[in-house]
Amino acid sequence: MVEPILEVNNLVVEFDSPSGPVRAVDGVTFMVFPDEVFCLVGESGSGKSVTMLAVMGLLPPNARITEGEILFKGEDIRKMPIEQLNHIRGRELAMVFQDPMTSMNPVRRIGSQIAEMIRLHRRDLSKGQIAARVVELLEGVGVKDAAERARSYPHQWSGGMRQRAMIAMAMAHEPDLLIADEPTTALDVTIQAQVMNVLSDVRAKSQASMIMITHDMGLVAQVADRVVVMYSGRMVESGTVFDVFDHPRHPYTVGLLASVLTNGPAAERAYAIPGTPPTPADRPSGCAFNPRCSLAGRSDLCRSEAPLLIALGPTQSSACHFADEVSAWISSEEQLREVEREAANA
Fold this sequence. Notes:
Blueprint: E1 6-15, E2 22-32, E3 37-41, H1 48-56, E4 63-72, E5 75-76, H2 82-88, E6 93-96, H3 100-103, H4 110-121, H5 127-140, H6 146-149, H7 159-170, E7 177-181, H8 189-206, E8 209-214, H9 217-223, E9 226-231, E10 234-240, H10 241-246, H11 251-258, H12 301-304, E11 310-311, E12 317-318, H13 326-345
């Protein structure tokens, strides 16, 4: 049996607030295996990025892990001495952050910042060797005239080019696990495709596993092997990409999938899940999704009792009291939307 490269068990992360601790991540459990793409999906505020910052040991000072364990190659990151964690970060475990403009130092040249990442873990290399490696990395992510472009400052590069530089920096030591936090945010569709191609290429060369954090279900369909859907800090569904896209078993997942823009009549009016996600400090009782869920109107159970994440098969789980009814509910919802479209076009 293949051992996971990363194992997160019952992770709980709390933030300090004037009114007391606020639970931003609540009982998250998953595994990532070698050479797979694992996606964490959900709207902003669902706890995706906080989960990965906990994995990296980069939580802000007002946040802490109160329960759970994070095993990287079998070792608990929470129990590692800071020297060992610093050795792993950037070398075996790396992250591409969401906004490269705020993640880079604006007054330092891009090549210098990539060189620093190399130097931190390879003290044996000369300046010339490091400079050559910087050029090699930039060329590897598709930067033309890399030696010259390395002398540019971040503001002199476009958003897509800055993201390439962040990928080059993260891949400097060919890590075993790469975490990509919304790597295509604020990029147009063409540049998104280029950035994803770059990620795919560098992953193929290094055979790294990758965790993709995103709210873009279309992107998930293209790259994922397995998916975890998060809502209000909790896992609401998990499974292979085929499970989640072909047979979703949670109303929130259904809403995310319906929000993907498509061609044809269904694209005449974009679908949006009603309402907004709750803040971690003000979650509703019962299922956190119940105020936005039309399926929840069938029972008081959704408003009184939080559902557990239950296995529905060998590869799929759902945290919904009515997971077995979701397929029939999808059909009725699609019929209703078809009636609404016909009425709007009449």
